[in-house]
Amino acid sequence: MPSLPDRHSLEALRAWDTPTICNALEIVVPARRAIGFTRRPLVACFPEMKPVVAFARTAMIRSREPHPRDRESANRIRLGYYEHIAAEPLPSLAVIQDIDAPDTGFGAFWGEVQTHVHKGLGCTGVITDGSVRDLDAMASGFFVLAGSIMPSHAHVHLVEFGGTVTVGGMVVSPNDIIHADRHGAVVIPPEAVGKIPEAIDLLTRREKVLIEASKQPGFSVDRLRQAYREQDEIH
Fold it and tell me: What is the mean pLDDT of residues 180-201?
C-alpha cells in the first residue's frame, strides 16, 4: 500500500480546481477516468471558497425517526465519531451519507454547532448528500457541499462511522484523499498525488494551443485542424 503524501503535497493541489484535477487523473491513472468522482449535483454553499484537499472521515446518518439507542450508547457513538474526525492524518474532511432514502436530507446534521466543533478538531469541511442549515452562522472557512438546505435537524443522528460510504455517486473510504470545490469532488489515489502537477502542466500547454488559436482573427476549421496537429506534438 502506498504511503500517504505529506501535508505540503496536498496543500499544493489547492492551486487547481477539481475539474482540472479530474483531467490530470485521466493521464496519471487512466483506469479511473469514469470512477471516483461525484456524479450527481451537490449544493456548494460557499462557492467562492478555494478548493479543499484532505483525508476522508466517513459516517452514515438518519433523521426521519428518533434513534433507537439509550443516552449512554448515543453519546458513545458520537464521541467515537469525533475521535474518528480528529485522528491523524489531518486535515480531515467529513463525508456523510444520508441513508433516509427517499427522504434524504429530511433533517440537517450540519449547522452552526457541528461546523465549529469539526473545525476545532482539524476538519476542513463536509461533503454530504444530506442537508445543512445555519449558513450565516457556520464556522468561517468551513467547506460545504450538500444535497440540500433545510431548516430543521428533525431526529438526525449518527448510524455508524468509519466505513465505506457513497455520496453523490462517489464511493469513499476512511483516509481516502479528496479534492473538492464548487464543482464537486474526486478521490485521488495516494500514488497519483506527486504526479498531478506535471500532468496539469502538460494539459495546460496543450490546451493553450487551441485557446490561443481560437482567439486569432480569421479562426477557421482549417486553423483548428492545424492546432490539433500542433497539440499532438506537445509531450
Answer: 97
Residue 1 pLDDT exceeds 60: no
CB within 8 A of 186, min separation 6: which ones? 18, 21, 22, 25, 36, 37, 38, 170, 178, 179, 180
CA dist., res. 67 & res. 134, Å (int)? 23
Sequence ranges of the domains in the chain: 36-188, 197-232
pLDDT value at residue 235:
87
Helices 221-232/196-215 angle, 10° precision:
160
Angle, in degrees to the nearest 10, between helices 18-28 and 196-215: 110
131-132 and 108-110 strand pairing: parallel
What pTM did the predictor assign?
0.94
CATH 3.50.30.40 fits 36-188, yes or no: yes
Query: In the prediction, which pLDDT does 107 show?
Result: 97
Which H helix or E strand runs over 12? helix 7-12
